[in-house]
Write a structure and sequence with these properties.
The complex is a heterodimer of chains A (250) and B (315). Chain A has 250 residues and is of the alpha+beta class. Chain A contains seven helices and eleven strands. In chain A, the strands form five sheets. In chain A, strands 10-1-11 form a three-stranded mixed beta sheet. Chain B has a single domain, classed as Formate dehydrogenase/DMSO reductase domain (Formate dehydrogenase/DMSO reductase fold, Up-down Bundle). Chain B has ten helices and one strand; from the N terminus they run H-H-H-H-H-H-H-E-H-H-H. In chain B, helix 1 runs antiparallel to helix 2 and helix 5 packs antiparallel against helix 6. The chains are: A alpha+beta (250), B mainly alpha (315).
Amino acid sequence: MTSLPRDPGPKKLGLVIDLDTCVGCHACALSCKEWNAGGVAAPLPDWDPYGAEPDGVWFNRVHAFEAGDGADGRTVHFPRSCLHCDEPACVTVCPTGASYKRQEDGIVLVDEDLCIGCKLCSWACPYGAREYDHDAGVMKKCTLCIDRIYNTNLPEAERVPACVAACPTSARHFGDLGDPESPVARLVAERGGYDLMPEMDYRPVNKYLPPRPKHDHAASGPGSAVSPVTEPEPEGESRFLRWLDATLSR
Amino acid sequence: MHPAYSVIFFTTASGMGYGLLILLGVLAQAEMLPASRLLGLASLGIALSAVTFGLLSSMRHLGRPERVLRAYTQWRSSWLSREGVLATMTYVPAGLFAAGWIGFGDVGGIWRFCGLAAAVLAGCTVYSTGMIYATLRPIHAWCNRWVVPTYLSLALFTGALWLNAILLLFGHATAAAPLVVLLTLLPALYIKWRYWRFIGSTRATSTPETATGLGPIGKVRLLDPPRTQTTYVTREMGYRIARKHAAKLRRYGYVFLFAIPFVLTVAAAGTASWMAAGAAAAAALSGSVGVVVERWLFFAEAKHVVTLYHGAQAA
């Protein structure tokens, strides 16, 4: 059923990501890939992994952004994964019932046995959280490591998402954001945790903690911002498009 | 957005088919439809073939087409599911309408109401198609009030072009058909012009600053993407078309979709010669080429806010 739960429970499991302490080591992304390559969403395919154009499905990716200029500028490492939104349009657009939001803990999941691979959910997600597996013909996404957090075969301390367990700087926190007294909710309140793209009104459960203000270094000279990485225009994907490009460029 | 040929062919072909079905149903209701069985075979044959090939083409977009029946289940929440349900339901009255017209040479009585029911359901199907796009908030060029009218008006207009061509080809020259072409051309042209003006003058409210929440620090730009090559997300959602190409293709769109069909329809109006029939058929073909260009641009020009995480400064 892709209608949202009519009576969403109080529990909202999610992540709090501290942009102040994240060092951009990609351990969370790799650990996620490793766990999920054998977990409920397995296999998590790679294509041409050792070739010139490696490609694959990842649930967690780490960007780096620059914000501000000069001495006030910051480089911020920015992990991005499914935010398990309270208003996930990726779920309501699904024609088959494969995408759903769990009533008991708010986790957004895909039932791969029902998915027809129409990809509409990936269009509906502003955050790019869903990646298509063209081997299986179905959409895949972060499960919040549902096969770890409730896994009684694991020692209790390990029942957290793989990305959280892997983080060497404790920049990732897992918990119940629906409970205002939970450690994660208190962390969000103390540090001014925020939603990504609040204007989209998807009401993400995951929160981001902003970088702490810089120490005031008296001798801060006129810094120069590194020029951003620019990407080349994508290559024409087919002979028709290359022909179209050439024809229209005349 | 990546312009997938299967989806472009589906929305343009089935749009034309449903538009033609709507017009046939309305004409039957107005008792202006000749009861010729050959005409019924040609017009409903073209309408239902366009719809059916379009729907089959859309299946090529699916990763697991063998599970397509699942898509009928979520009509309570999903416009894509509603589109599938309505598209299937349309076949029932359309089939009965075809049985009366082609089988019994009768477009009156009970058959007339089948035609009307088919027209209503066809209209609802095209509306659902438009709503699939118009409800996608991450895509500014789709989530606006011009998108559903674009789908509806272009379905009617391309349907009218084929209706006019079929009537002339089968020797049923009427004053009504060219008039219907012109009456459907005007709103389609106006809506498309307003749509292009709208997406040219407005932007998504999301920015790299809101996407990352780092706005309070200052202007945000991507330093390092989270990948070494393109990914599914950047290929599907990050498709870009050069502005000069888009401008050129829009001009082709205006010419093939509106200008050529207008001139040919006016030239063919009021006469019943084979030349008039040829002109009307050429108008229909030109309009069909034009609507494919229009639909290709509808995808290629649409920017998704996820690109803000991958280096875009606006979406």
